[in-house]
């Protein structure tokens, strides 16, 4: 199996999984439907095109920099021309839109070699503009990180830490633990389910299934860590008593 | 004599209330003891370590065994993580001259000074990291230890002592209508035991002022690079 790695970082991201009506929420990590949609856009697929080959990909998302939740209370208005020629402004529904600001993630997708290489190529020259969950959230740099002959977890463990320098300097230790959300294996204990398995993006018949997610972590090196900086643990010298 | 470690859930409102006021925290810590907590061989000392934004740990030294159920209920994880108390005697008995430890200390470094219009001198806080380091190095010998020379940057023959101010802040809060201002500094580094009796006294009675406000608890840990026993 091969893995394609994607860097997802930008000033704003928004990855909804269950939004209804005027409250447009975001998960705190990229969703599978969002990432599959991004790849479909890069490949130039239309919303009604079948997604079959992308649905079998196994996803793992590494949280390099968690970012902060941001709420936008949106008061959009639209103009309406009256019969006498005057223009009146009508309010659109007041809505709450949620974003993650200043976050960085790395996504790894595992699948057949040819498919994975095609995704990498498409991300380098996308057919449609790419964005991080919402149209107003452009990525802050190239997305494609390359293709690896390995499994999801080991790729996420070997890629360098993509957090911003300021964020990295806040950690003094040389090793940092980064959380990973990955597709759970069948029957894995402790997995959570979220409503985030894309089936079809057809605007007339959007369909999502349930997806099992397991939480893990990987250890990566911190380029700004200080040598010998370890967490102070006074219990270590006290023994069993 | 016991050392207690307790993780604090900084996301809870009770934890915020305690962390906002060293006075409230002191009251909560002391409420964990049936008596007033002090004894012939030491007094209650406590410290809050925040390693990351969301990881806050309370350390308490006490002559008696504490019961912190009330803090767990307000500011901890009642169903999963409570507190962990260990006897301090093995460490106190194992102190020998020349033994090395990593140390951490949150203290209130002050000097006595007089400003215009003051009749008497008053303790004034040291505010720069350099002054605060000098404050600690100045009294290390009396406290029973020496700060080990640092291994990095020793190229020109003069090794700096291995101590750093890893965190510092000025806390202000009200106490009985008057404002209390504390300059707090957290030191971390490596020390070598030079006087066993003095260090025992330091570990059990604390360092410097403001011991009721989370200052003065010196804790020792295995130095980096040594394997766990």
Automatic annotation (TrEMBL), chain A:
Coiled coil: none annotated. The keyword Cell membrane does not apply. It comes from the Bacteria. Keywords: Antiviral defense. The keyword Acetylation does not apply. Gene3D superfamilies: 3.30.70.2660. GO terms for molecular function: RNA binding. CDD domains: Cas5_I-E. GO terms for biological process: defense response to virus; maintenance of CRISPR repeat elements. NCBIfam families: casD_Cas5e, CRISPR_cas5. This is Type I-E CRISPR-associated protein Cas5/CasD. It comes from Phytoactinopolyspora mesophila. The lineage of its organism: Bacteria, Bacillati, Actinomycetota, Actinomycetes, Jiangellales.
From TrEMBL, chain B:
Pfam families: CRISPR_assoc (PF08798). This is Type I-E CRISPR-associated protein Cas6/Cse3/CasE. NCBIfam families: casE_Cse3. It comes from the Bacteria. The gene is cas6e.
């Amino acid at each position: 199996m091969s893995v394609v790695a994607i860097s997802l970082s930008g000033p704003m991201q928004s990855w909804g999984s269950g939004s209804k009506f005027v409250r447009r929420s975001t998960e705190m990590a990229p969703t599978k439907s969002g990432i599959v949609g991004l790849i479909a856009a890069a490949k130039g697929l239309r919303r009604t095109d079948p997604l079959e080959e992308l649905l079998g990909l196994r996803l793992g998302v590494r949280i390099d920099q968690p970012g902060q939740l941001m709420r936008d209370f949106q008061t959009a208005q639209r103009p309406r021309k009256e019969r006498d020629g005057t223009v009146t402004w009508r309010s659109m529904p007041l809505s709450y839109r949620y974003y993650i600001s200043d976050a960085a993630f790395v996504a790894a997708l595992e699948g057949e070699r040819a498919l994975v290489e095609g995704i990498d190529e498409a991300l380098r020259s996308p057919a449609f503009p790419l964005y991080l969950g919402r149209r107003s959230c452009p990525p802050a740099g190239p997305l494609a990180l390359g293709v690896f002959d390995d499994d999801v977890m080991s790729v996420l463990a070997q890629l360098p830490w993509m957090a911003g320098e300021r964020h990295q300097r806040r950690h003094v230790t040389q090793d940092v633990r980064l959380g990973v959300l990955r597709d759970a294996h069948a029957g894995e204990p402790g997995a959570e389910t979220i409503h985030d398995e894309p089936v079809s993006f057809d605007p007339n018949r959007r369909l999502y299934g349930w997806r099992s997610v397991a939480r893990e972590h990987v250890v990566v090196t911190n380029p700004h860590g200080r040598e010998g900086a370890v967490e102070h643990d006074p219990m270590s010298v006290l023994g069993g008593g | 004599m016991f050392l207690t470690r307790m993780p604090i859930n900084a996301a809870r409102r009770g934890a915020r209330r305690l962390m906002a006021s060293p006075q409230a925290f002191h009251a909560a810590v002391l409420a964990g003891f049936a008596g007033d907590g002090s004894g012939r061989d030491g007094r209650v000392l406590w410290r809050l370590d925040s390693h990351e934004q969301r990881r806050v740990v309370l350390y308490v030294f006490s002559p008696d065994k504490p019961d912190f159920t009330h803090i767990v209920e307000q500011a901890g994880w009642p169903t999963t993580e409570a507190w962990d108390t260990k006897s301090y005697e093995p460490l106190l008995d194992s102190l020998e001259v020349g033994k090395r430890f990593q140390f951490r200390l949150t203290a209130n470094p002050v000097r006595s000074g007089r400003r215009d219009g003051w009749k008497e001198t008053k303790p004034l806080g040291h505010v720069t990291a350099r002054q605060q380091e000098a404050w600690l190095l100045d009294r290390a010998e009396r406290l029973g230890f020496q700060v080990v020379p640092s291994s990095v940057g020793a190229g020109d023959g003069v090794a700096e002592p291995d101590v750093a101010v890893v965190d510092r802040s000025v806390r202000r809060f009200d106490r009985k209508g008057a404002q209390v201002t504390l300059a707090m500094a957290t030191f971390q580094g490596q020390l070598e035991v030079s006087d066993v009796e003095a260090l025992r006294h330091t570990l059990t009675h604390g360092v410097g002022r403001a011991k009721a406000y989370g200052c003065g608890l010196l804790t020792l840990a295995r130095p980096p690079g040594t394997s766990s026993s």
